[in-house]
Write a structure and sequence with these properties.
This protein is of the alpha/beta class and 250 residues long. The chain contains seven helices and ten strands. α2 (25-31) packs across α7 and α5 crosses α6. The longest helix is centred in the middle third of the chain and has 25 residues, at 128-152.
Length: 250
């Protein structure tokens, strides 16, 4: 009996995980070196490239063969299929860093000029419907890709990207309350659409979030020119979060 329990425990501990997605994989990959050696082998990284590629369609999906190929003109040319994913085992989990990422919409939109209507002061007021349309426009390609990956491999989950850092240079002319609202609205809307598709979210580690809804500066990237990536300490906590999620699965 004792041997059987130990065997099941080892099996649960070692469910393999493929981690794929945008440039937020960098800190997670560096965090791997901070884990105990015995807990590293379960993780395999399939990086794709920068999240800026998600401004346009970046994959092709064949529903007949359940095969997805990323667009080589903007990303690594990578094929996802039941064969490529399942080669690691039928209990493999695919963890994807893509749709829950607010860095583009916070950085590249003119939130110093425009604001949601109930927050607007000197700014031009945007209706709730307009803000939702902006969120949908920014997230649609990532959402479609994750939905298609889940059709190929139902054991697919989304890794939430970190919230913004208070020292990001793009915040210098933008009101913090507006940024916080847009960040929260984006995450809520995308989470809802993922839930409707039956896709779980692996949340940002709670220990990395301040009481003001930002990512703590102790987890900021070492390069002061990097406005939105985290460091390896953050990556380690994300790996622990992923591992805990995977081990809860049947």
């Amino acid at each position: 009996m004792r041997r059987g329990i130990a065997g099941r425990f080892r099996q649960a501990e070692m469910k393999p995980v493929i981690i794929t997605g945008d440039s937020h994989l960098g800190p997670i990959r560096r965090g791997l070196d901070l884990l105990p050696e015995g807990r590293r082998n379960r993780f395999v990284f399939w990086p794709l490239g920068k999240g800026a590629a998600l401004r346009r369609k970046c994959h092709a999906f064949d529903a007949a063969t359940l095969t997805l190929r990323t667009a080589s003109r903007v990303w690594v040319d990578r094929v996802f299929s039941r064969e490529t994913i399942g080669a690691m085992g039928s209990d493999t989990v695919l963890a994807v860093s893509l749709p829950l990422n607010t860095s583009r919409i916070l950085r590249d939109y003119s939130w110093e000029t425009y604001a949601p209507w109930h927050l607007a002061q000197a700014e031009f007021a945007l209706s709730d419907q307009m803000v939702e349309a902006m969120i949908d426009g920014d997230s649609i390609h990532a959402l479609n890709m994750v939905r298609n990956l889940a059709r190929i491999w139902p054991r697919t989950a989304v890794i939430e990207a970190p919230r913004f850092f208070a020292n990001a240079s793009y915040l210098s002319r933008k009101r913090l309350d507006v940024i916080r609202h847009v960040d929260a609205a984006y995450r809520d809307r995308v989470r809802t659409m993922l839930a409707e598709a039956g896709i779980d979210v692996i949340p940002q580690p709670a220990a990395t979030i301040t009481d003001k809804g930002m990512t703590a500066l102790s987890f900021d990237h070492h390069d002061p020119q990097d406005d939105h990536h985290a460091n390896e300490a953050y990556g380690k906590l994300v790996l622990e979060e992923i591992g805990a999620y995977v081990d809860r699965l049947h």
